[in-house]
Amino acid sequence: MSANPATRKAIAWLALVFLLGAGLGGVVGYAFSRHGITSAAAPDTEAARRAHMVERFDQELHLTGAQRASLEQILTGLQAQYKSIHHQIDAQIDDARQQARGQIREILTPEQKPQFEEFLKRLDEERKQRHQ
Question: What φ, ψ does residue 127 adopt, rounded to 5°?
Answer without folding.
Answer: -65, -40
